[in-house]
Amino acid sequence: MFNRSYDREAVLAYAKTWAMRRNPRYADFTQMGGDCTNFVSQCIYAGAGVMNPEPVFGWYYRGMNDRAPAWTGVDALCRFLTGNRGLGPFAKLCDREELQVGDVIQLQNREGRFYHGLVVVSAGKNLLVAAHDDNAWMRPLYSYDFRDMRCLKILGIRAA
Question: DSSP class of residue 110?
Answer without folding.
Answer: T
